[in-house]
Amino acid sequence: MKSRAILTCLALFLGSVGFAQTTPPSELQPAAGPQLQSETKTAADAQKDSDKKDDSDHSRKIHFRLGTVSLAGGYLSGPFFYGPSWPYGFYPYSFAYSPFLFSPFYSPFYPGYLPNLAYGADKGEVRLKAPKNAEVFVDGAYAGTADHLKNMWLDSGAYDLSVSATGRSPFHQRIYVLSGKSLKIDARLGPQKEKSQTEEKP
Amino acid sequence: MKLRTLLTIGLMCAATVYADAPRGTVPRATAESYPAHTIANGVSIGAVLLTGDQARKAFASDVDRCCVVVEVALYPEKNSAVKVSLNDFVLRVTGTDVATKPSTAEVLAAKLQKQSSQSSSSGGHDVVLYPTAGVGYESGGYDPVTGQRRPGGVVTSGGVGVGIGGSQPQGPASTDRDRRTMELELSEKALPEGNASTPVSGYLYFALPSRKDKKTTRQLEYTLNGEKVVLQLP
Questions:
Q1: Contact at 8 Å (CB) between A102 and A111?
Q2: Do residues A161 and A136 make contact, with C-beta atoms less than 8 angstroms apart?
Q3: Interface with chain A: mutation pick from B17, B90, B113, B129, highest number of A CBs within 10 Å
Q4: Distance, CA of A90 to CA of B27 (rounded, Å)
Q5: Does A33 touch chain B (CB under 8 A)?
Q6: Domains and CATH numbers, chain A
Q7: Which residues in chain A (97-126) have CB-CB distances under 8 A to chain B?
Q8: What 3-state class would DSSP assign to A1?
Q9: How many whole angstroms separate alpha carbon B141 and alpha carbon A82?
Q10: pTM for this structure?
Q11: Among A96, B6, B12, B99, which one is most buried in terms of CB atoms within 10 A?
Q12: Is B40 in contact with B227 (CB distance < 8 Å)?
């Protein structure tokens, strides 16, 4: 019975994930450009052209997306008023009258209150690879040490990223963060330039 | 008078900000370091066509989705300057009339933003699924209706909430803020225009369809003081 229950849950979860992933891959391929053009188009013109395409291509498509998945567990030992549907099989309203500790409709974890599975949909991720104790600066401001900033979520924009550690030459890079995208930065700090100092000595 | 002073200060601030922004890329040591290079009117020119992978690594924007990227470097002679203008460059598919001038960062950013919003779920219907599952264990109890003792056991329940319509999720790099960021990136990495007395380099973006046939080659044409230079891009 136990294994049956677990299997049911697992099948339900996997089924919903699989269903969500049937979203048709949209037109990622760029449209072929015109054959010959002198670039006199403005941004507004480009916008107009693509608007026309929008109307024709996307009018009747259905997109499936997976929202929040809720899993719950509970235990009851005493008598109860309205028991769950067992042994009558699946009863869709059982949650509403469930005596379990968890009720998705009355809990702060109710799926309706959670946007979706994506974190920071309006932000971009910066994955930083740097020595653990290196200090990280974003636009000149101290952000923390690299071991705490392996993943940074920043608003869309351009930033000046600096990573420095004692005894190592600093790393500087201008980064461009776009929402919903991930940017990998491998900050390789070079060894301190001691050669030039010794060369200068008479 | 006050307005005039304010305008002057504003212009000075804008000029400072503009001057501070990095422009172009770091030129290689010599023009010969580039796969395609030549000398015209005392100016050494080097160019390289970026592959899709190289473009993806060099840019946060998906510039490879909309155009061909060429890195160009100009090395003027000592004590002389060269006037750099995007209008002087043309990319041509070798042996054909298919040619284009460089696109501006503004246009490309608008195109890329539109492509991103198209590739996400813009248009059509959006269906969101919210699956729920519950597992419980009851040790037993009395049914208040029948008064009979109910056996205990594992209780499971599940359900799927279906949401239709509503606000659609925004695709990556599809907001107005993203467009401004892409525009900034493309303009900052582009070949800087104006008079250059030291080596300059940067990217040029050409809105040509991506190369399907590997045998198709492209050539970069550069007109300098009326003289046309052709660089075959491998």
A1: no
A2: yes
A3: B129
A4: 69
A5: yes
A6: 1-22+64-117 (no CATH), 123-186 (2.60.40.1120)
A7: 98, 100, 102, 104, 111-112, 116, 118, 121-122
A8: coil
A9: 11
A10: 0.62
A11: B99
A12: yes
Residue B89 pLDDT > 50, yes or no?
A: yes
Residues whose CB falls within 8 Å of the CB of residue B48, separated by 6 or more in sequence, listed in order: B34, B35, B36, B70, B71, B233
Give the distance from residue A57's alpha carbon to the nearest chain B alpha carbon, in angstroms: 9
Q: What is the DSSP string of A182-199?
A: EEEEE--PPBP--HHHHH
**Residue B29 has which token pair?**
């040591």
Could you give the maximum distance between any two Cα atoms of chain B, in Å? Answer: 105
* The predicted structure's pLDDT at residue A77: 65
Burial B194-230 (b: 16+ CB within 10 A, else e): eebeebbbbbbbbbbbeeeeeeeebbbebebeeeebe
Alpha carbon A69 to its chain centroid, in Å, reads 16
Q: Do A72 and B132 touch (CB under 8 A)?
A: yes
Which residues, listed in sequence order, are joined to residue A62 by a DSSP beta bridge? Answer: B125
Residues 6+ apart with CB under 8 A from B105: B182, B183, B184, B186, B187, B190, B205
Domain boundaries, given as residue ranges, for chain B? 21-110+182-233
Distance of CA B212 to the CA centre of its chain: 21
Q: Do A98 and B136 touch (CB under 8 A)?
A: yes
ipTM: 0.72
pLDDT tens digits along A93-151: 444 444 444 444 444 444 444 444 456 668 899 999 999 889 999 999 999 999 999 98
CATH code for the domain defined by B21-110+182-233: 2.60.40
d(CA B219, CA B131): 55
Minimum Cα–Cα distance from B186: chain A residue: A176
Residue in chain B lying closest to A59 (CA): B124
Question: Phi and psi (nearest 5°) for B158?
Answer: -160, 165
- Asked whether the predicted pLDDT for residue B81 surpasses 80, the reply is yes
Alpha helices, DSSP H only, in chain B? Answer: 2-20, 52-58, 105-119, 176-189
Name beta bridge partners: A155: A123
A180: left (phi over 0), alpha (psi -120 to 50) or beta: left
Beta-strand pair A135-138/A62-66: unpaired
pLDDT digits (tens, 9 = 90+) for B91-104: 998 888 888 999 99
Determine whether the interchain pair A39/B178 forms a contact, defined as Cβ–Cβ distance below 8 Å: no
Q: Does A61 touch chain B (CB under 8 A)?
A: yes
